[in-house]
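Aim 2 progress update. The chain analyzed this quarter is reproduced below.
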Amino acid sequence: MIDPDILESVAGRVHDRWLATKAAQGCTSRLSETGEELMVPYADLPEPAKDLDRGTVRTVLAALEEMTAGGCG
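Predicted structure tokens:
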């Protein structure tokens, strides 16, 4: 299980990278399914949007754990 503070920090970095990529593509606004702006700093995101970033981090970590759990082969 990942430390909650580390999870939050990495999720924020994931969002920052997404935000930078969208900005580089010329995107200035992106709304959630409920109409909330997502092109804002991570701290300003609504909780459902933060949960998506947290889920991304958990998914990547789980994949890495599965890939490295195989041992020496």
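The mean pLDDT is 93. The helical segments are 4-24, 47-68. These observations will guide the mutagenesis experiments scheduled for the next reporting period.
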